[in-house]
Every structure is written in C-alpha cells, then in structure tokens.
Design a protein that fits this description.
The chain is mostly beta strands. Helices cover about 5% and strands about 45% of the residues. The chain has a nine-stranded mixed beta sheet with strand order 1-13-12-15-16-2-3-7-6, covered by helices on one side. A hairpin with a 2-residue loop joins β4 and β5. The N and C termini lie far apart (about 45 Å).
C-alpha cells in the first residue's frame, strides 16, 4: 500500500496524542524494544535524541532513559557525537539544521546498531495563531492555526501546543492530500478532563503553537498513534513503526519549526 492510499483510508487531518507518551505494548506482545525519538530542527540547540524501552501494558507510562548509548548525527560527511545530558537524553546544543539537507542518525547500544535518514523539508509560512472569545473556556479551549500550503502534493505538518511554556500531550498532524496549495485553518484543542482546576486555561495564560514541517514517514508514524483516541488517556492499538532501522521503535525527523504566541484574552 502506498502512502497516498494509506492516507486516503485514514483521512487527511487528525488530532493525536503527543509522542511524549512513551510506547507501551499490549498484553499479548511480550517483546521489549528500544524506543528512539530524534529531532534536528532549523534552529540552534534543538538537536535531541531520546532513548527508552517499551513497557508492559500495565506498567506506569513514565520515561526511563537508556544510558551509555553512542549517538551520532552525520551531515555532509561530518559526524557529530551527541552528549548524554541526562539519562536517556542526548543532545548537541550547537547543531543547527538546514532545510533541504539530509541528516543520518546512528545509535549504538551495546552490540546493537540502529540507523535512520531524514531530509529537512522547506519552510512553510505559519500565518497566524489566534483565540476568539467564543472559543475560550477554562476547561476546553480551541485556538486557531492558519497557514498556506505550497502547490504540489507531499507536504506534512505537525502542530504542538504549549501552555505557559509547558508542552501539552495532545497534538495535531496535517497532510495536504486533499488541500494541496490551499489556505488551511485548523484548531488546536486543549481539554481538561480531570477534576483538577489547576489544569484549566485561565485568562492571561500564554499559548504557544509550534508548526513543524515533516516528512511522510514521520507523519505516518504520528498518525498511527491515533489508536490512543485523542483523549489523553488511551494507548496505541499497536506499536507504530517509524523510520528507524535495526528493530527499534520511534522516528528520526529533520524538521523545520516556527512558533506563534497568543495570550488568553
């Protein structure tokens, strides 16, 4: 099945759970795998690779990092070794990605090696991020994003939201499968389904939207997490396969980033 048919069957637009939620296996799947999530962006200090292990279905969904891995990213024949800044988190604070260039990830954990390749897409302008009074509620807030998709199929977007600089679990991915070359408007939805009122969005809070231009394999990986039902409470129906070779789960994404901010009126 090619990507176009895959996306047609699954729809073009979807709200998903954040990839910050580490993968967990269903009860019938006894094999534990490494989970690698790597990002290179077009701004200095953004290069980060996290390594953990998949868990049993009933285990707490907390991050437990894998230490002492050798992690490197190569670009134009030059390889940079990332430093482990905390358990399972590897960074290069000087690396700045360039749109159109290709980056290669290599991770060695003991005798095992995992590899991935990603080419950073071109920047697509993030036009606006806004919040109307009618779309604000302390428990459920819907902020509007708008951008212009360039002509030509094959553009994919990943939107994340921060509230008062705290990254939220829910995110949205968008494909231009059915909206090629159009002006696109969507909503980033925050919903507090708990009884904890401290999690409500209050007037004066700062909302930040991050727009990432990503490649098709990363889009498919994030899209497949829709098994978590978008509620913030579910788990993927199966473990999505990304673009990491060697048997690890996860993804490696060279991506652009642009931010917009709005203060709750």
């Amino acid at each position: 099945m090619n990507i176009r048919h895959f996306l047609f069957l699954l729809f073009a637009l979807v709200t998903l759970e954040s990839c910050e939620d580490k993968l967990q296996f269903s009860p019938q799947d006894p094999v534990f795998k490494y989970v690698i999530e790597g990002i290179v962006q077009n701004e200095t200090g953004s290069c980060k690779v996290t390594i953990s292990q998949s868990k049993n279905f009933e285990d707490p969904n907390t991050f437990v990092g894998v230490s002492k891995a050798v992690v490197q990213i190569e670009n134009k024949g030059v390889a940079r070794v990332l430093s482990e800044t905390s358990p399972g988190i590897y960074q290069d604070l000087d690396l700045k990605g360039v749109p159109g260039q290709t980056y290669k990830l290599k991770v060695k954990i003991g005798e095992q090696e995992f590899n991935a390749v990603s080419t950073m897409p071109k920047v697509v302008r993030f036009i606006s991020f806004s919040l109307n009074a009618a779309d604000y509620d302390p428990v459920r807030t819907e902020a509007k994003i708008a951008f212009k998709d360039p002509p030509g199929l094959g553009n994919y977007y990943w939107f994340q939201e921060l509230i008062n600089n705290k990254l939220q679990r829910r995110f949205k991915v968008v494909s231009d499968e059915f909206v090629d070359g159009q002006n696109i408007s969507e909503y980033l939805v925050y919903e507090n389904k708990t009884k904890d009122v401290t999690r409500n969005v209050m007037k004066g809070d700062k909302l930040i939207a991050e727009m990432h231009c990503i490649e098709a394999p990363v889009y498919i990986y994030l899209f497949s997490l829709s098994g978590a039902d978008g509620s913030g409470e579910g788990l993927p129906a199966s473990n999505p396969q990304g673009n990491i070779s060697g048997g690890a789960l996860g993804f490696f994404s060279a991506q652009t980033i642009e931010r917009k901010t709005v203060v709750v009126p």
